[in-house]
UniProtKB/TrEMBL annotation, chain A:
Species: Ignelater luminosus
Protein name as catalogued: Uncharacterized protein
Molecular function as annotated in GO: GTP binding; GTPase activity
Domain of life: Eukaryota
SUPFAM superfamilies xrefs: P-loop containing nucleoside triphosphate hydrolases
InterPro entries to which the protein is assigned, alphabetical: P-loop_NTPase, Rab, Small_GTP-bd, Small_GTPase
Keyword Iron: no
Keywords: GTP-binding, Nucleotide-binding
From TrEMBL, chain B:
Function: Regulates the GDP/GTP exchange reaction of most RAB proteins by inhibiting the dissociation of GDP from them, and the subsequent binding of GTP.
Subcellular location field: Cytoplasm; Golgi apparatus, trans-Golgi network
Superkingdom to which the source organism belongs: Eukaryota
The name this protein goes by in its record: Rab GDP dissociation inhibitor
Keywords: Cytoplasm, Golgi apparatus, GTPase activation
InterPro entries: FAD/NAD-bd_sf (IPR036188), GDP_dissociation_inhibitor (IPR018203), RabGDI (IPR000806)
Molecular function (Gene Ontology), one example: Rab GDP-dissociation inhibitor activity
Family designation: Belongs to the Rab GDI family.
GO CC entries: Golgi apparatus
Amino acid sequence: MATTKIPEQKVILCGEYGVGKSSIFRRFTNNTFVTATDRQSTLGLDHFDKIYTVGDKTLKLQLWDTGGMERVASITSSYYKFAEAAILVFSLDNVSSFHTLSQHLLDVVTYAENAKIFLCGNKSDLEGSKPQVTDADIETFCEHCHNLISGTYKTSCKLGVGIEEMFTDIACHLVESNRSRLELQSMEKHGFKISPREEPTEDSCLC
Amino acid sequence: MDEEYDAIVLGTGLKECILSGMLSVSGKKVLHVDRNKYYGGESASICPLEELFSKFGAPPPDESYGRGRDWNVDLIPKFLMANGQLVKLLIHTGVTRYLEFKSVEGSYVYKGGKISKVPVDQKEALASDLMGMFEKRRFRNFLIYVQDFDGQDPRTWKDFDANTQNMQALYEKFGLDKNTQDFTGHALALYRDDDYLLQPAITTIKRIKLYSDSLARYGKSPYLYPMYGLGELPQGFARLSAIYGGTYMLDKPIDEIVIGEGGHVVGVRSGNEVAKCKQVYCDPSYVPDRVRKKGRVIRCICLMDHPVPNTKDALSTQIIIPQKQVGRNSDIYVSLVSYTHQVAAKGWFIAMVSTTVETDNPEQEIRPGLELLGPIKQKFVSVSDYYEPTDVGLESQIFISESFDATTHFETTCLDVLDIFKRGTGEEFDFSKIKHELGDEEQ
């Protein structure tokens, strides 16, 4: 296969501690689920790339997890930088995780201005017959934020429901919005990543 | 907070964040606390602009400054050497994945009231207006000697023992005049004063090599600067630490560092909570009784709507004013970054003039730097003490970093960090402990 560069899109997970961001991350990376008691195993997880094909376009979704920084401190503003999409995650069985979303939304629009924003209600398996957060609540929230939200999803990491559909849909949105923007984006605006230097060949005199 | 940790790190300045990252990666249980609401301490970039103005007690900026949150203004100006220690640390720790950089466009040196590009290779040496024709040839020969110099191969030494003979002797060997010595020592080897002249030449040769190797990496100048400001650096290392299990707490005042029997640290108290620990790593502001004042640095932040004159409209620049040129004992540094680094609103530039304070009138001392800048819209001056630890920590297990000095790059920063790590853990940092499958599993 030809090695043309596939556009890379940073996608970040935002939301309260314990709503299942790392579970979404884990489903995304290797489609597994661990229970709360195994939490320690999130150590060392940073971000993960996966390629999606939408029509004739391919793009690489690069999903980032918070690293648990939101537990007692705030997340660094760096986390948001260069993000093309942000998924605001709340737990369908926890109404307060839904109500704090506006704060997370504010962080996203402040630090990642250009990011598309998506809403994800996780733990749909715990929703039950009397949902803590109703569809009407979600709709109202979206209206209140002036339609900043590009898509809403319900997922269950435990059952593995809705995750893949969500990412495929996000990939569609990003391809759509990038079509025009990718061409406009001048290299000027961007810096570069530093990488290890290739071993110089004339290093033979080191011995 | 009421738990037991291997190490508690106080302050989220760059040095503390690098240490926190290194400790977490090494498997230590780390609690990282800052009394401020934001990451970065002294090495934060201030955003929005309104905050910078209020920090210095100025009335809020008018609308000509654009959107306040497009600004990220560093309090301490520094650049990264492209082939320097910090870049190595960023690469080895993988923190480079959180950052993007730009090359600094120009590197200049001040001579006789005007600035000239720092010549680094033979071609530039011959074209430079810093030297007369014969001096150019001597300088070119000197550069070739340094380039070819190999510490392991005595044939490249040309009858000069750089390990025992001093730098003054090497200059004399090539017949370089005082002016050439001046910009070589200060703009290429980046010394702050002239003490190096009497030290073995090998250190200076290595420094000049670092400069030219750095230059070779990304062109234009040997310096790099991160998009969104230097404040991104500590945050990158903080994330590394968090990814490896470090716990973060901001906005948490520290009331006491609790010392146990035998003078060892046993914990840290905030209000009536005590976190237990075996070691504390911190910046000088958390332990005023274990540091001493080493000197003072003046830094002047200048907001401007134009680049520095005579730099070919460079959007980023460094200018070094060697001490002797202006009758001082330490150099004056000028650095410039701009909107192109996402640290200022469109069309704006941030210059910073800094030096080690030598007199009772520090503002007067930086005048030669300010005069190079052209019209300045807004100026913020700060004079800060810088401290060094009086306790190396081997008994107390409290390991204290030095304040940031006036140098314009991070080489001394990294040396301090690596030294603290070694003192604290008894070993050199093992880069192989970083799980590189982090990146490998991306396939």
